[in-house]
What does this fold into?
Amino acid sequence: MSSVVLDSVTKVYPGDYLAVDRLNLRAEDGEFLVLLGPSGCGKSTLLRMIAGLEAITEGDLWLDGQLANHLPPRDRDVAMVFQNGALYPHRTVRGNMAFPLEIAKSDPALVRERVTELSKVLHINETLDRRPGTLSGGQRQRVAMGRAIVRQPKLFLMDEPLSNLDAGMRTELRMEISALVRSLGVTTIYVTHDQVEALTLADRIAILNRGVLQDVGTPAQIYNDPATAFVAAFLNSQQLNLLAATVRTPQNQYVLLDFGPHRLTMPWSDPRAYAISQHTGGHVLVGMRPDGLAPVPESYEGPSFFGRVRALEYHGHEWLAYLECGMPAVPVPEPPDPRRRAPGAKNGSGGLSGLMRRMFAPVQEEEPQEQERVGSGIHRRADLIVRLGNRPVWRAGDAAKVAVDLSRIMIFRPDGARIDPPRR
Ligand code: ADP
It folds into this structure.
């Protein structure tokens, strides 16, 4: 077993491309940590720096309490599984799995026994005498896993090991990886861009975007209590509703979120109210998952929005409704583009706040909806996405009212960070 600590680790590729930006992260002994994020966010770069396949530009890597920045890969006791298995084509399955032990000059009888035993656990014992070219994708990944596991390293690093497999095989192997790795108790860092894989496999998930760590927590923590708007949006199987609001505290009676044509009031008894009131007169972003909104009759007097149904969409197990409610759409705030950043440039500066200024500049306190600039590419009216379950209660063109579950709305600063701090 092994712990991994990344202390302000930075990777700059040639051409000043900042692939990983001052990242702090810790994987505990025996933990299954998943690195999640969109393609190109720096997950593989991070994994390769831990393996010693990529140099660290700045910051420190500690493996089991030992500074490992310059430790050669072979001295790290790390096994890596890649997306494509990368097996030796002229060796049999047994030969591939045995290879790391043969290199280590282990006793041949012991090697034979361990490989046979492990092949049963991985359900490839029938294929031991075959060559990789005759195996299915799922079998090849099992062999690759076997080869990584066979010498019981201190650390497993897995880089999208399931992404080349079909959906059924992915689910099956996902469950097996989880059971196997946990039974061995080896610290595992697993890279994926698939939120379902991350949520189902991880003890904890670390989410990256554009080389910047966004959030770390258990799957339930980051799903229910995300640190940033990006995390909330990334972990949403449907699109997250993200709206801009002005904060007001009229006569100090309550906190008002003013969306222009719609308003929501939050009583002072709400634990988030004080933190939000600190932004009085300013703008915030409000995130709502489509299942935090529910159709209600027009007479409903609780927190709600009203609008017109623009479209309904059938998803097999559910219907989604797109409501036109006259509120401006807000893009999910992102860290600055790494291609435009010099190494050592200040994080979070420039591009993003500039975007927010442009977005909000035309919004006047009283009637933000009047100021929409549809042609500018910045303001357009948002569709509010509402999850309807398996019955489409509306038809396109209907007037519609939705109740807002205030306990489930998430409130972010214009740069995307949560206003009320997430619990970790
Ligand atoms: P992910 O694994 O999240 O898809 P990567 O870590 O592979 O992302 O890449 C992060 C960014 O760094 C990408 O934009 C990629 O194009 C860039 N990158 C990766 N490897 C190199 C390299 N050797 N030289 C220059 N840029 C690279």
